[in-house]
Amino acid sequence: MINVLATEVLKARRSRVPWITALAFTVAAAVGGLFMFILQDQDQDRARSLGLIGTKAALVGRDADWPTYLGFLAQTTAVGGMLVFGMVSVWLFGREFSQNTVKDLLALPSARTTIVLAKFAVAGAWCLVLTVQLVVLGLGIGAVLGLPRWSADLATSGVATIAVTAVMTVLLTTPVALAASAGRGYLPGVGVLMAAIFSAQVVAALGYGRYFPWSVPALFSGLAGPDAGSPGWLGVVLVVLVGAAGVAATALWWRNADQDR
Question: pTM above 0.90?
Answer without folding.
Answer: no
